[in-house]
Amino acid sequence: MVQSYFELKKNGTSVQTEVIAGISSFLATSYIIVVNPSVLSQAGMPFAGVLTATIIVSFFSSLMMGLYARNPILVAPGMGLNAFFTYSAVLGLGISWQVALGAVFWSGVVFLILSAFNVRTLIVRAIPRPLRFAIAAGIGLFITLIGFANAKFIVSNPATILGIGELTPALLTFLAGLLLTAVLLTKNVRGAILFGILFTTLAAYPIGRWYGGDGVAPLVSWQGLFAAPDFSLLLQLDYVNSLQWAVVPIIFAFVFTDMFDSVSTFVGLAEAANLLDEQGEPRNVKRSLMTDAVATTLAGLVGSSPGTAYIESAVGIEAGGRTGLTAVVGALLFLPFLFLAPLLSIVPAIATAPALVLVGVFMVRPVVKINWGRLDEAIPAFLAMVLIPFSYSITQGIIWGFLSWTAIKLATGKTKDITIALLVIDAFCILALL
What we know:
- This protein is mainly α and about 425 residues long.
- The protein has helices at about 1-5, 15-30, 30-40, 45-70, 80-90, 95-115, 120-125, 130-150, 170-185, 190-210, 250-275, 285-300, 315-320, 325-335, 340-345, 350-365, 375-390, 395-410, 420-434, and strands at about 75, 155, 160-165, 305-310.
- The termini are far apart.
């Protein structure tokens, strides 16, 4: 039945290959179990509650991707989206995390509508490709900056705005974890990021013993191994107040940021692994986008930032995964961690910081696809890319990237590069600024 449902022979694969691929994708993606609660807890949300929500979203969404869309792609709360949730929406604009969860939910509803009527794909096609590449790279730089800041490698400096932090034992431990993780990634070790987190956590434990209590808070505190899942964030969203006009720009940002991320992931993985249909389009793209929309809607309901397709699924695809069975295996591997919250909560910020820094490496890859010699495209792309980390706001980078693209094209007489759909997007950008 498994052979028939997933069409394993037709896709030139086997159950064994798909299982190995699923494990590989999980190892590459599993860092989100720790990193997502680490980011969202800074918005005032309980670490254990976010961890439970992260696993629920990852499990059900990846399972749907495997069984419904039949693609070997894992779905989980997205990096960049969780940063926007915490640093731009909650800490930046001052809204409560309950309202922010409501914004996530309503953005998911918008996704469902757009995906059901194929509008989402049409809108994405209207967005200039250089801007798509630049936004992905900008989010990568933003995440890297957050990682360095969490480790206190980069700190505030009144004289120079930013500066390098003092070489404390904790910072040296972060650097050791960063180096090890980088070496493992370079050697293509499966689960390199997860192993880096584990190593840095273990290395931080003696720091907690030796230096805690001397004016320095312990980095690691053991609270046990097993615990029941924390469902305290279930249905805690404020779906009424999140519809206020002041929150609309946040919903808008979630919609477009998730849209760029998921569609570019589907297209990139499909092209790389030849997961294409008879027309040369990504296989089961409508069902895949619908799954992504459900992931975001579910995230708002259970207490997480939006879910999205993971580019790290390429690890499993490179291991031979070609069908939805890969995603099903990966989904099932998330479940045990529902009962391992105390184990994962011992992971300090300096242990997840290397993951944040190096995930940025993967996200800036598309920048090489920008034609830097064509300035009418390079300048808007550059503005979008650098304004995301410099303004500490994904929204501002996206807005000024679109508006500068349109303004430069109009001023240079290249109106053929401006579509009606793009003008509609610009209108929403102006509304977001107002």
